[in-house]
Batch of 4 targets.
Target 1
Amino acid sequence: MSYTALYRKFRPDSFEEVKGQEHIVTTLKNQIKAQRIGHAYLFCGTRGTGKTSVAKVFAKAVNCEHPIDGSPCGTCAMCREIAAGTSMNVIEIDAASNNGVDNIREIREEVTYRPTRGRYKVYIIDEVHMLSTGAFNALLKTLEEPPSYVIFILATTEVHKIPVTILSRCQRYDFKRITVETLMNRMQELMDHEQVQVEEKALRYIAKAADGAMRDALSLLDQCIAFHPGEVLTYDRVLEVLGAVDTEVFGKLLQKILQQDVTGSIALLEDMIILGKEIGQFVTDFTWYLRNLLLVKTSDEPSEAVDVSTEQLRELQQISENVEVDTLLRYIRVLSELSNQLRYTTQRRVLVEIGLVKLCRPQMEVSQDALLERIRVLEEKLEKWESNPPVLMTGQTGAAFYNGASGNKEGANLQKAAPKKEKPPMAAPEDLQRIRAEWKTLVGQTDGMLKTMLNTAVPKYNGVTGENKLYIEFANPLAQNYVDRPDAKHFMEELIAARYGKSVEVEMRLAGQDQNQALSEISVDEQIREKIHMDVIVEEE
């Protein structure tokens, strides 16, 4: 006897075997028990969620001679005929290959004949959105007023392509994506029936890869079992069969990217390709890995936000401490764009390599999150300089520049003494510098007239005292209303505290007012230039 695929072998024969669609099953069973059966149904949802299976079970239930609680008995003559596909009462039509007006006219002619056995003739039209406009028009009248013994069940994955005139004539049922836990439980149940040993971790990965589709899950499971028949199905074997990558590799790749190590990142990609990993799956899994990191870092209950083991959750929490939220958002955006591009290119590897270079080199982009990433890298360099500062030593031959750690001479003798300069203003506190760097983002969290005024305002500080106080200097005289209102000041203080976790005093004023404070504009690059002795170019949008 030929082998039958798992998803065909274990197709539901009753409503009780349908998993993950309880809201639909309960409604249909109640209709059958109460004899309130409709004449037209529309089953819509993503692939593999049970639309056709539920339609066939419903067709058996309405024709069953001895229904049990609204579900077919499975033993009567009608149930056996429908299950075997020999019943003349259930007509299944593929609209993808029978989408013309003539095909629908045949249906209209057939519905005039009553069923020879059973109570109902059930027409199941799969992928109904593929019907032509003329075919839909030909179906309208029959769908609206069919004979009492005819039931139409339309199934589609693209409900937005169905004409409104068809939708209004049907009872619509939306099939949900099946949860990971439901998929796991069903697969474990089938593996116990088939007497196949499988690791829970392996089933979890297959369930996630199925993306809410039971048919996809069983197909992937079937493929993995065939890899080593008769042996335990382990997590590593599942990764090997599906061309997937272990999460440990993603952690290493993330570290390479954070270190801006282009060579190391591409070398890791090369290792994955040599091992036969599918490059599109690699990008998708890495995106999900970063998504889990983002949820772990931002969620109050990480264990509920991500569906991973306790050990993996602990690893994600440790890694998330070393990466900023804005950085993760940029990585996810770049990889999502890359996934879309991979669908239409033949140079997949080159495209992924360019994506890795873009992740490692934020200066290649001019977006806001790329700018924040560049600031993060500069801050790390500044911290290294502060922990190992250069020492300026003067000898008999003049001034020479030495490295404090190695003692190596890095500069030449100074020929002339630098002219004496006026004492520069004190640098703004780091809190104010960060607010200045993200001023546009901060203003974007306000609205109304206040947002309009803040867009032209200049954040300043007291260059003499260097105190941690933010002065917002408005250029528009109409902003006098906000200068005189304490609630506007408190609003900005609360907004800054919520975003940065720091308490900063805010004072609002109009430009040109006679003030005693020596206010200076907050320069983000002033402190960097002072530390690294070079000009820093700041790109502005």
Target 2
Amino acid sequence: MKKLIVFLAIVAVMVGCSKQDKSPVVSSDFFQGSALELRGVGQCASLWRAVDGTQADFEAFVKQWLATTPEARRTLYDKISRALEIFYTQQNQLTIELGRPTVLAEGEPGEIDYLLSSYDAGAHLSDDMFANKLAFITILNFPHFTLEEKNALGPQWSREQWAYARLGDVFTERVPASVSQAVTAARSAGEAYIDTYNIEMGHLLTESGERIFPEGMSLLSHWNLRDELKADYADVPHAREKQEMIYKVMERIVTQEIPAAVVNNPAYDWAPYSNRTWKDGREVSLPSEKDVRYSHMVNQFHAFQELDRWCPAMPTAIVRNFEGSLEISDAEVEALFIRLLTSEQVKRVGELIRQRLGRELRPYDIWYDGFKSRSVIPEDELTAETRRRYPDAEAFKRDMPRLLRNMGFDAAEAQFVADRIVVEGARGSGHAWECMGRTEPARLRTRIGADGMDYKGYNIAVHEFGHNVEMVTDLYHIDYYTLFGVPNTATTEAMAFLFQVRDLQLLGRGKQKLDDAATLDIFWGMYEIMGVSLVDMYTWRWLYEHPGATAAQLRDAVLAKAKEVWNLYFEPVLGEHDSPLLAIYSHMIDYPLYLPNYPVGHMIHYQIEEHLAKCGSDAEFAAELQRIYRQGRLTPQAWMQGAVGAPISVEPILTAVERILK
């Protein structure tokens, strides 16, 4: 997962947000000029408050700061974008350094570390920039365009016009620092809870008292639990029994029946089927977590509610997430998901999996991993290789130029990119951290055990490496700073998937490409994550319908939504009525509404894979990939048109799966 981009987060919070007194303070009627100039003056007037000055002050301000020639406007752009790069870089460095004890595996953090990591270094930026008038200067000369306008006008815009429009997204309205800080604090608390939510697998017992997982295996929920379940599709001892036990553990987590003391604690043995616990061989009674998981969701909702009060144009977290950040409406996203979930192809691929497994499907088969070539390789074998190659973070760092050359990058560019990536051991499952300015590196975080990087950590590292390559390329090689990055987090997830599906290739185990097996694997992954994403979306709709809900009420609602989605779209394929499995995803807790980025990212990934499959060589593949990166942060649909010549859609993969099944 890529951490929430600081720049995009600032934009998402600022767009459409203001709680200041709305009564008119100044008028823009005095001004006569071009349509663009009138837009800038009008937007400035709508945000000008009594504290900013009188009508005369406003008119003098417009006269002084309006750039009336293309040359003057470009000069302003260059200076403001340079200032933003400095601001964002310094804020990013503060966030990274204050968060190190809580996100990196560098000793046990204390309460003071969690307090410091929740500090939002950028919380006062909006306040400060309006106070010194830089925000007004930006709005005056680079007015904001709505998403609808960008989609309509964007195809005719030059690169410079796109850059100006993205600068116009930065200061659209005014949010107080205290509100931004409260949102950051609530998210940090949820992230800290998730990052330390490990299940000690060697202390899980069957009902007969047998231990089927190795001593010392500690798996983070949900990511590592899911990955272990996937690994058990290979020919390993107790494979089915392990999968069933992990499924039961997941059920106990989402229902909050799990004993609180067994989380991240090897002092107790736990039989998840009967929910009994033992300490030093003697049975003990332990209280459940009850509602801790859902209290973090409630706390974040309350923080967002306060932000909502300042956002009349985008008055809910749902609108800000989809129309503001993802730049695709939630209704459009939901329709895309349901189109695939209700397709005949899903049922037929499910039947294919049933035939391959030689048994009736179970709910956890949403993570069926048999389409990948590595699924027939025991994970212990892969782990032995990754530990040998990567005993520590520095070993992975040293190997990055080779990894890029394997993907077709020329030696010079491979070294250039690798030199701007730092590798660090993560406390949680792993993530990539953005470089916000061309003086700092991107950061790759993954779990690295005392014995080296196991295969799960390696697979995550390759995913995050994909993020890092995109981050460095579309920042250091971008033509306008305000265009650095990609349109949204879904797009950067697609870029990470491109690398992750080639993890065995990067280990020297043959060339991985978009063949029929890879297409079916991507399709089945879409099916799974679309269901999870709908649960996330429906949960937040429910929260806005029940703003006073307690953690216990939210728990019941989440389980009800998970069962509802399951029964509609998954029970017909996988069986078991009322399975709550879709509520297990950790991002529902630490990054609400992030999940829809994954299936949208899968759609983008597949379309790009189809496009890149036409490349005649590795070098051509890498060159085309870099061309796509360097488009920068256009709107998603404009970016996709430039990348592959078509909009974001599920139809290409549905068509491909239909061809394969025939």
Target 3
Amino acid sequence: MQNNNEKFNSFWLGALLLLVISAIAYLPLVKDLGYLNDDWYLMYDMQVKDVDFFHEIFAIDRPGRALAMMPLFSIFGFNPLFYNLSAFLFRFLGGICLYWALRLLWPEKKFSTLAATLLFTVYPGFLSQPNAIDYQSHILGLFLALLSIALTVKSVLTSGRTPRILFMAGSIFAGWAYLSQMEYFIGIEAFRFACIFVLMWRAQAESFRQKVTKSILASLPYLLIAVGFLVWRFFFFESERKATDIGLQAVQLFSSPLTALWRLNYLIQDFFSVTLVAWGLPMYVLAFPMRLKDMMSAFGWAALAALLLALGMRQRKENESETLTNSQRGMRRETWWLGFASIIGGLLPVIFVNRHVTLPDYSRYTLVASVGAALLLTLVIEYISSRPAQVTLLSIFTAIAIMTHYGNTMRYVRETAATRNFWWQVAWRAPMIEEGVTLIASYPGSPLSEDYFIWGPANFIYYPEKQTNNPVEIKLPSSVLTNDAVLNITMNGGMETPLRRGNYLERDFGNVLVMIQSSLNGCVRLIDGSLPEVSPYDDDRLKLIAPHSKLENVALDGSLQTLPELVFGKEPDHGWCYYYQKADLARQRGEWGTIPVLLKQALDKGYYPEDALEWMPFLQAHAVMGDLENMRSTTKLMATDKFLRLQACEIMTEFMNQETLDDAVKEFIGKKVCE
């Protein structure tokens, strides 16, 4: 038996190892992460309103989230690094709470409890960790849930009345706190009650009936958590989101046997996704496609984690193996039931609201069930009799998780860099954009699933002034390019006035500005609908709406916008796209003499376009200036692509009708550009 000092040292050595391994999983690239997805509207609202506006944002479905985000924003402000660090801290603390609970359940299973905790903390099925601002509540909620369960286990095991009541009260309050963040986390209550039943079931001299009775009685106080929350949710709170309206979801579920069968089908699928697919598919999708340099870095971090894990296990000086006694067999049965109950409990609320685990896109629904997935995987490792072999297998799974998280974070780092580069180019190109125009944007290689991925950064740049009115008025609305949006734009009309989370938009599909970046190394093009310039790499839908883009919404007065560094990062180096944007602005202003000067500056520094379409402002400037020699060389550069050659002919032919050009230039266009 261990004395208290040995138990203390063993626990904190395990916690230290957990801290180091989880830091390797989540922190190597953290400084390069910025705003992602829903972060944009949250932070823009803080730009134009004060911290109390979080109440308005989350009032429709999860009002408790405001209580978490208000103090966090008051401390961290607009700095994304701090949110990523706090998300890591909450993730680690959640692991510590699980470790505490498991050590209370099985104090002699030092290796297995640490292994399960480690697999949970670096679980590769949850891939939204880098989206730290929006997912702060998810990760905080999981920490509070596991703290609540650890306090439950401690309370059940405590004999003194006063400390037992205190632990019980702390558990209940922490339970309400986690449900205030994410209501579908309620499935973790299955893990709580499974822990209670496991503890009550160990009594040797009691009958089945006595064990059941004791388990129910011990569970009763903790029913206050789920029951209290559900009473509030059903009878005192009215959700404005269908996805979080429990009553509506219940009606849909029980209205059709076919619906129930589909939900059962998803439950079975998701069980395998959480337990098996999460350890393979994300790594294949996210880590394997990385560049060789990044892959070597991922291998290096994974190898370091595996080495530290092996050394840490050896430092703890555990027995080579544990004898498979009746007690050990009982512990394995307990682990199985705890793991199974945790997975089913974690998935049922997700399935209930008609959601489904799909990796890697909807990985957040694995978060609660990952507790059970870690327990079941640890149980598999336990069936290996050799301790070195167990450590080796644990190291392999840890290495898989490290590589997955590295690849996942690298994806978000690239998305951050691409988004920042896009908007820096827009700021170079457009001194101001008129209020009310609806923006249509295409980011390179990054799907835009929500309109605020566009209007968030755009309004940060052009309309950052404080607003006193409620709701927030979005001066530059935007739209995702759905089929309906394409139809509205091509029909030159249609209005939408959505109000969402305290943000009001007036989308006018008859007044749009299209902004396209075809590739990461290409330049952003603000499309002039009268002479649209589209690339062969552009999506067909963008080509359809390009003639409807109104470039006159770009105001030509004013100087370059000053972008906040915390939001958009440092200004990129002035490469080819900087000179292209300045040339395109000069073209819109009619400052034709400026454009050849900009071209010379770019070429003298060794900058050239990746997309030959980007020669067009310079070709037109040469035409206006009557520079046939440079027109000839530029035309040759554009003639390498048939699509661009035909487009150049069409654009330059129309350009002749708009500008006063020399006869020699017109002849050149007719004979050379359009040959």
Target 4
Amino acid sequence: MKQLMLGNKAIARGLYEAGVCFVSSYPGTPSTEITEEAAKFDEIYCEWAPNEKVALESAFGASLAGRRAFCGQKHVGLNVAADPLFTMAYTGVNAGLVIVVADDAGMHSSQNEQDSRHYAIAAKVPMLEPSDSAEALEFTKLAYEISELFDTPVIIKMCTRVAHSQSVVEIGERVVPEKSYEKDIAKYVMMPGNAKKRHPIVEARMKNLIEYAEKTPINRAEIFSGEIGIITSSTSYQYVKEVFGDSVSVLKLGMVNPLPPELIKDFASKVKRLVVVEELDAVIENFVKSLGIKVEGKNILPVIDEFSQNLIAKSFGKEVTAGVTVEDKIPARPPVMCAGCPHRGLFYSLKKRNCTVLGDIGCYTLGAVPPLSTIELTLCMGASIGATHGFNKILGEKSEGKTVAVIGDSTFMHSGMTGLANVAYNQSNSTVIILDNSITGMTGHQQNPTTGFNIKGDPAGKINLEELVKAMGIKRVRVVDPYNLKECDAAIKEELAAAEPSVIISRRPCALLKYVKHKPPLAVDAEKCIGCKSCMKIGCPAISMKDGKAFVDATQCVGCGVCSQLCPKKAFMSTEA
């Protein structure tokens, strides 16, 4: 039976058909939907782990126990999971273990634009790269066969376009292979004496995988013309076919590590001009050059951002048809925190006190944009606390009383705890604010260890943040409601003045959660409003100015009341009957 599927959903279907029994991931765009879709199959145990390292270690444990396992993350998540990944290449697996990493060329939802193919090369593990949903399903099943055939974890590299585009797939039946666990200290205990003996096995495996890459049908040559030959993979293959059709020859690579040298040499010998079309780094191009083959690539194509049909056509000197444009200038609509976002009041209080705010990864990163313009650093998951500790240790009295870290509840569980342990252990006079919106907001409302629910919404273990940070050695811990500006202001003032580490938990559920009941929207009494724009300082999208007076969009307002606390004339009123 054929179905139209997102690439991520097709991966999940592949997991089902491949007989996967265990899935552990951490949400990260553009990979999140894989695990959410897999969780819809009752036959697959699925979970959100606190971070990607824990997720991959858990998946490895399931593989060790004899059942096929999976771990998904975005490209920066693989940085976190790299530690176990590199050693798994030495130990090998028992049942098949597949890792999906979804790269984000164009940085639609990411803080960098790294190319995950480097991880496969460095870790010496095979990597497959589908170019549409049908291949996403097919390659997932194939990846488990390769994993068990070569005793290795296998990475599938997705990208935003393949993950979030739809194409037709052919679905099949579920088959569940089973393996038994056998104790093997020499294989699985990677102390130096054993690891030294495993490294030659890894190198021999890579040679065998090269032979496999030469013959596998997922690497295929499409010979149509001897003038131009293009080597490509992933979504770039789709762009090449749309631009050139059958007017050029194409070597389509489905396995991008290891690469097939003989297949590439043979293809190159059949064309006059050879070009590699690949997003981001010149991985394939540099490999082709290492074979002594003359090839073009990054001399005509960029190393940044996503490709497109027009970009490729223009790079090859083809005429690009002008697109349809709108004559009227459309105003820019930069991203902002939602109306009623619980972080807004807290950020306003920090701005009011002219605090230096080192931030973290989450939707609260939008506290960096006008008019709040509060966050001054966003590096990686958990970095806010470690950076604040170092900042305060160096500047000492110059930073005391004004420098804070802000981090979300999910991000704190992911990577923030070790940073806070460092603050408590090495005693920097640092204030950490945990923005507890009771969900993982940025990636679409996934549960986390502080919410009390698992991936299916069933009751689960719930970590108490107050007790946790106290147990870590923080004596000063207080909870505030970010809708209460006076409470926030007082807490920030007092904790920054304290001569010891402290934690403020700003607790209010995300305004977009379905179970959150909002108050009636507010309205403005035009007679009282003097047009001072004090209410505009919080940057709420529900508030605008019309005819010199503040105006509230009732379709957006959730009645949080933060704006009314800023109005000197008490012009805001409830619309409740």
